[in-house]
């Protein structure tokens, strides 16, 4: 969110806020930093440098959200000072949030929301981030590092004997691994289990394929948080932000995300909330839980940020004295490529869940739109949709997991087995 709401709201806002406020637990992934340039621009941003003016939080509250995930690829766009400022502004505006903190213990801890008929917990984490964004542990001698609650994953490419031998030959002849081998020899880097070609890890197999799995130490830490949340609350939500996809298909979640989600439910989680690729993905029912692999966007105003650092202009070969609008035009090649022209980005869903005594009783799906055909200055705000096209996509993507979605009077419902 980068723009203030009109004083009188906008067409469709009252309808959507009324729907949200019918629910006691109102979750959103807050994918921005909040400050007035208190932070320093990171060398490794999450794309567009995401910065929201603190005054926008008063408008954001009008939608009714009361519990947020703050762990994503934009959390550290303005380094540690930007994160600390974001924390302060969110707290001052009364928002509960999980996924970031002044150290790893804070970032990975659950937050709790007390409701009329029970207590709900949220654990936030992200798989999409630069290594330097990860929060660090405290030690007896040193304080921890502010950052995100990381879920890293391991990727091993499996190749036939012929292909892996060819890769090893290239490695020897080019010296691509020389720096890495020296660092290992001198003790500055731990050796990998399999053969490495640059930053990529390979092993011999029968066919050529990609294998992914969550990093064990991150998985163990998050599962520990889930178990603690289960002890202390009636409903456990886990938010996972990930841009990763499978087999070149942005609509398809990678294996390690599915393994992660199911492991969280096995440990006591009830609702897994996935987001990141800016489009919807399928819904899977697993045991007594539900996994939303991708909820798409709710507010999407990344092209109307007020300022951008010099690094952004330099990346696109522009003069650093240029304007934000010119920089966005350059990146999108005058709105002919990118998220702005992908219609899937501007149609999304809001799930409403009825939860009772440890079980999900009903899941309703409300379709929303964000104004794909509007100019940049006005697009990005949500309103309820009266088209069924998003349900066609959601049904197709969910059928892969055996999930059935019916539609009645413009509202979808997930069939609970």
Looking at this protein, list some descriptive labels.
five-stranded antiparallel beta sheet; 417 residues; Purple Acid Phosphatase, chain A, domain 2; six-stranded mixed beta sheet; alpha/beta; 25% strand; 2 domains
Explain what the structure shows:
It is a single chain. This protein is α/β, with parallel strands linked by helices. The protein folds into two domains: 13-21 and 29-40 and 64-149 and 216-378 and 398-414, Purple Acid Phosphatase, chain A, domain 2 (4-Layer Sandwich); 153-211, no CATH class. It has helices at residues 13-20, 56-62, 79-92, 104-108, 161-174, 178-185, 216-232, 255-266, 310-315, 324-331, 389-399; strands at residues 27-29, 33-34, 51-52, 67-69, 96-98, 100-101, 111-115, 118-126, 147-148, 153-159, 195-197, 200-204, 209-214, 235-241, 271-275, 283-286, 289-292, 347-356, 359-369, 383-384, 405-408, 411-414. Strand 14 (235-241), helix 8 (255-266) and strand 15 form a beta-alpha-beta unit. It starts with 12 loop residues before the first helix and ends with a strand. The mean pLDDT is 95.
């Amino acid at each position: 969110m980068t723009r203030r709401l009109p004083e009188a709201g906008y067409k469709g806002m009252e309808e959507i806020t009324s729907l949200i406020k019918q629910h006691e637990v109102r979750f959103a992934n807050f994918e921005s930093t909040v400050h007035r340039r208190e932070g320093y621009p990171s060398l490794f941003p999450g794309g567009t440098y995401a910065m929201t003016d603190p005054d926008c939080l008063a408008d954001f509250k009008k939608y009714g959200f009361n519990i947020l995930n703050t762990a994503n690829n934009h959390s550290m766009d303005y380094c540690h000072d930007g994160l600390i400022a974001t924390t302060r502004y969110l707290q001052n505006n009364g928002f509960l949030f999980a996924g970031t903190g002044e150290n790893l213990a804070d970032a990975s801890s659950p937050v709790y929301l007390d409701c009329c008929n029970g207590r709900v917990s949220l654990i936030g984490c992200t798989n999409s981030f630069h290594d330097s964004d990860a929060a660090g542990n405290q030690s007896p001698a040193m304080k921890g590092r502010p950052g995100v609650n990381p879920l890293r994953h391991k990727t091993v490419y499996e190749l036939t004997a012929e292909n892996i031998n060819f890769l090893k030959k290239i490695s020897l002849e080019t010296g691509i691994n020389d720096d890495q081998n020296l660092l290992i020899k001198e003790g500055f880097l731990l050796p990998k289990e399999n053969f490495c070609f640059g930053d990529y890890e390979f092993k011999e197999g029968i066919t050529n394929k990609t294998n992914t799995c969550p990093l064990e130490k991150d998985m163990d830490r998050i599962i520990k948080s889930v178990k603690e949340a289960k002890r202390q609350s009636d409903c456990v939500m886990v938010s996972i932000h990930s841009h990763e996809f499978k087999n070149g298909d942005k609509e398809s979640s990678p294996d390690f995300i599915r393994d992660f989600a199911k492991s969280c439910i096995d440990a006591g989680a009830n609702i897994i909330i996935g987001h990141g690729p800016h489009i919807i993905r399928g819904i899977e029912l697993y045991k007594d839980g539900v996994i939303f692999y991708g909820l798409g966007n709710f507010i999407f105003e990344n092209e109307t940020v007020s300022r951008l650092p010099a690094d952004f202009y330099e990346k696109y070969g522009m003069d650093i004295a240029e304007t934000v609008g010119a920089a966005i035009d350059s990146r999108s090649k005058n709105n002919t490529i990118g998220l702005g022209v992908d219609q899937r980005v501007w149609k999304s869903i809001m799930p409403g869940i009825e939860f009772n005594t440890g079980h999900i009783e009903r899941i309703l799906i409300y379709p929303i739109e964000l104004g794909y055909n509007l100019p940049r200055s006005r697009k990005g705000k949500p309103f309820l949709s009266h088209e069924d096209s998003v349900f066609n996509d959601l049904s197709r993507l969910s059928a892969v997991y055996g999930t059935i979605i019916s539609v009645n009077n413009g509202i979808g419902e997930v069939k609970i087995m």
